[in-house]
Amino acid sequence: MQFKGFCSEIFKVGFIGFGGGNALVPVMEDAFVRNEDFDEDQETYDKDVIVANLTPGALPVELSSALGDHAYGFKGMLLGPVLFALPGVIMAAVLFMILSSLNEYTLNYINIAAVGVAAFIISLLCDYIANVFVRNRSISERRFKRTYLVVALICFFTCGNAIIKLLGVDATSLFSVSTINMLAVVFFIAFWLHGNRNAFHIITTVVLSGIFLLGHGKAGILADIPVLMPVVEILMIVLSVIGLIQSVKGTGIRLEIDQKRMGKTFLLWLIFVVVLSIPDVIILNNAIPFLLRDLLSTVMSFGGGDAYLTIADGMFVETGYVSEELFYSQIITVVNVLPGSILCKTLFGVGYYIGYNATGVTALGILSGISAFACSIGASCAAFYLIYYLYAGISKLNAIAFISRWIRPIVCGLLIKVMLSLVNSSISLSGTTERGRFGILLFIIVLAVVNYIVKKKFRLNPWLMVIVDIILALIFFII
């Protein structure tokens, strides 16, 4: 296949990229492995899929880069992921421009339509969670029970405030830890504990994690004690590094790396991100912290596109970059009804609204969104190639095995928080419509259940399901 043919094919895949990263694995396989015009072999593709699943970031973006790299070198490596993500981002940009120019009266109808989209999203997230439980049950009954435990613990530590808000109670949860801090504890456990069952490792893990969670919870317990939290955080970092070193020594890893090619790969992605970040630096006063959050949120995004919603919530909603209402009623609504990478579209949307709100100029919002989009592509692919070059040795690490084994159950617990936020965002319409809180709650639950059943039984086109959901939401609120 000529390079133009590859570009055309990857762009087409981007147009039909519904269903999340893993859903696109067979689509890309049909387009590039089973296609006689393309030279990708099954073994190489299977390795790419394994590495992409071990890697944070946007899985289909990483696969697109790998496919381009194998066949056409660095130009394919750079253009493949951009062309895959471009269709969804272009359509998202059009919708964001329309939404940001509407008046409050019209936006209320958009928010009503978003309730239908929220029900569809909730059904997708429920399907994701159900598949995780089914997969782990097929492994063993013990793994199945532990999955329940992990999900319950994550919910306990992260969902408190969302549940209180849903109940309409004026209180603050004891914990309600942010997604970022919850993942910090998870990675500490992975690198420090990583399979060790002796008393010292278990006690230090429980004590430090407990203090960290209490100190960073919404209630702020222990947060006012001088020096305590910085000391705990430093200890967690030091012990994580020690644990990683012990794990490397224990597995006897020996790495054979093409250092010249690896260096050039990372240099090209660095240039890609820096060049496309220039508009944001010119437009925004706080561009650097925002761009660093873009990069960090991408490399923290394990578990697929839907799981990124929890990361984005922690990085941009909880820190005030965008409001919860804007994030869930507009950004998430748009990214979930369009094809392509959820991560890339979400970061583009966050960047667009930050740029637009700061300047009031649509074109500058688009440029800011492009900078955030570049960070999503660059960080995803840089993380992928890091693991790709180190794969032979790093796959043996206990910490990586732990993360690979439990990241999806952890993500399930975090996704429950996302679902509660979607429900709370929908219920907030009780203040601007004639529908009460309970009626809205019942409507979104019933609609989500119907979506789940219909999707399982009939596998209808996602666009059709979303359109029907929007119509039903408009009927429910207006008639």
Summarize the structure.
The chain has helices spanning 3-15, 25-33, 42-54, 59-72, 74-100, 104-139, 141-158, 160-167, 179-193, 199-216, 228-251, 259-283, 287-299, 305-317, 324-337, 342-359, 362-394, 398-427, 437-458, 462-478. The protein is mainly α and 479 residues long.
Task: Decide which structural class fits the backbone.
Answer: mainly alpha
Which term fits the overall shape?
globular
Number of helices: 20
Which parts are unreliable, with pLDDT below 50 for 5 consecutive residues or more?
Answer: none
Radius of gyration: 22 Å
Ends distance? 55 Å
Main sheet characteristics: none
Strand runs, count: 0
> Helix and strand string, N-terminal first?
HHHHHHHHHHHHHHHHHHHH
Question: What value does the average pLDDT take?
Answer: 87
Strand content: under 5%
Helix content: over 70%
Could you characterize the architecture of this molecule?
There is one protein chain. The protein is mainly alpha-helical and 479 residues long. The protein is 79% helix and 0% strand. The chain contains 20 helices and no strands. The protein has helices at residues 3-15, 25-33, 42-54, 59-72, 74-100, 104-139, 141-158, 160-167, 179-193, 199-216, 228-251, 259-283, 287-299, 305-317, 324-337, 342-359, 362-394, 398-427, 437-458, 462-478. Helix 5 (74-100) packs across helix 15 (324-337). The N and C termini lie far apart (55 Å). The mean pLDDT is 87.
Keywords summarizing the entry:
single chain, 479 residues, mainly alpha, 20 helices, 0% strand, globular
